[in-house]
Amino acid sequence: MKKITAKDLMVPLDEYATVSKDATLADAIIALERAQQAFDHTKYRHRAILVLDDINRPVGKISQIDALKALEPKYMDIQGETGSSSFRHFSRMFLNSMIDHYRLFDGTLEDFRKIATKISAGDFMHTLSADECLDEDATLDEAIHILIMGRQQSLLVTRESEIVGVLRLTDVFSAVFQSLAASSGK
Fold it and tell me: What is the CATH number of the domain that holds 146?
């Protein structure tokens, strides 16, 4: 694992779905769809969109969960500013009762399509932090450790201080388990 580096497995930034901070959620979804269509179909599909500042540097990320939560602002009332959830240990019945109590997603798909055209990516994106970055020369074992301990779906790969790609958990998982499968087939 010490021979494989982050740059060996990363998706280059220019192959990743990106939008500006001023883009709408609808724009972000369209960008994700386009990136998925253009991406190598033998690999896992993208699951996030990078948000760029005025000089095209990534400053945020929109995950699938972020996009769904953006459609229903009542989740801010439930989870607060941090978005963390302490509901993992509650029963399904209690969680379902929250849907009724808060009237979550109480609208048509057309209502949510309209909402998506009005929400700015900068308003609901996850702001990037140094904890989500990894140097391009970092080894696979270091990347795995950071992904596990940070419970991350991806890390931003940097060259000096510039973000050059995205190291996705799916690609790390695939590299490790393809290697294990190949070695156990001997």
Answer: 3.10.580.10
124, 72 Cβ separation under 8 angstroms: no
HSE value, Cβ hemisphere, 13 Å, CA-based, for 173: 10
Q: What is the span of the domain harbouring residue 141?
A: 6-184
Whole-structure pTM value? 0.81
Which two structure tokens, joined as six digits, stand for 36? 């998925």
Partners of 60 in the beta sheet? 51, 127
pLDDT digits (tens), the chain, 186 positions: 679 999 999 999 988 899 999 999 999 999 998 888 887 656 677 789 999 999 999 999 999 889 999 998 888 778 766 555 566 677 888 888 888 888 888 889 999 999 999 999 999 999 999 999 999 999 999 999 999 999 899 999 999 999 999 999 999 999 999 888 877 765
Query: Is residue 1, in this structure, part of any structural domain at all?
Result: no
Token pair for 55: 């000089």
Instruction: Give the Cα-Cα-Cα angle 36, 38, 41 (nearest 5 degrees).
Output: 70
Residue 55 domain flag: yes
Phi, psi of 126 (to 5 degrees): -85, 120
d(CA 116, CA 19): 14
Residue 156 CB neighbours (<10 A): 22
Among 53, 44, 49, which residue's Cα sits nearest to residue 27?
A: 49
